[in-house]
Amino acid sequence: MMHHCHLTIAAISLILLLSPQGADAWTGIVSPSARLSSRLSAPRTALAARQSDASDSAEIACPSSRRSFLTKQAAVALAAAAVVSGVQPSFAADGDDELVDVYFGCGCFWHVQHEFVEAERKILGRSDDELTARAGYAGGKAGAVDGKVCYHNAQNVADYGKLGHAEIVSMKIPASKFQDFAEEYCKLFDKDGFRPDQSGDRGTEYRNLVGIPGGKSSPLAQLLVKASLATGDKLDFAVGKGDDKDLPKVSFIMDTADFPSYVAEQYHQFHDGFKLDENYPGSYNSLASKFAKKGEDFGTCPNGMMGLGIGGL
Q1: How far apart are CA 105 and CA 167, in angstroms?
Q2: Do the beta carbons of residue 186 and residue 234 sit within 8 Å?
Q3: How close are the terminal C-alpha atoms of the chain, in Å?
Q4: Which pTM was predicted?
Q5: Fewer CB within 10 Å, N side or C side of the chain?
Q6: Strand intervals (E) in the chain
């Protein structure tokens, strides 16, 4: 659907690398014996229905699976944390904290970028000059064409949709603060796990995805799970294989080494939201030109065309 733009993001399935079941959670639904009581197995029916529509996508881990891991294997995870630092991640003090490149996608990137700009200000105390949130594209198998990934355009140059990408917002943040940003992402979904533009912006270009270094094997994956649980445990999660489908209530976990992000055009940066009343201050809208004047490269893609986008719409 060629609607453009609205809102925001998601989380993952718990990964316990020292447990065989922990690894299996990323590749398929856990067997009934691994589940908790029947009270928690209710989501399985709805999940199975969604799975039947996604035979060529990654298998999905349902909420009861996550709870099962958290309950039955907590002792294993806690014990392992004392020995293996990658299982229960520990990060340096802020002064020496590692900066990591991550991205979040959930519908239109305009609103999502604004929310993460506010998160950078609130969580990290960043000034305008220090903001790293950028609208972009990621998740497609084809990568870039001649170094380009572009919005829909009349010349049909490196169209991000045809390349299998979705709209995302990329950032460079301290690893120790990843869970805080993941929680902001999860808050973008409603109580039922739907993104705000679920009935408007639909299709693979607007699918939910999270990009982290190492994908499902990253220690950040556990923090993403914690963020999801802390904000209502609304989503199912799957390992992204690239060119994934747009599945309601499902977010795909991408390895940024295999599926890097590509910055979007300048006219998409720091844009007003899609809703007619979702206008941001001029000081926010002007950030794109300020960064461009300082030398930031937003590519050389053609502008969006009428029918596919007027001024990027």
Answers
A1: 6
A2: yes
A3: 13
A4: 0.75
A5: N
A6: 60-61, 99-105, 134-138, 166-174, 208-212, 236-239, 250-255, 262-263
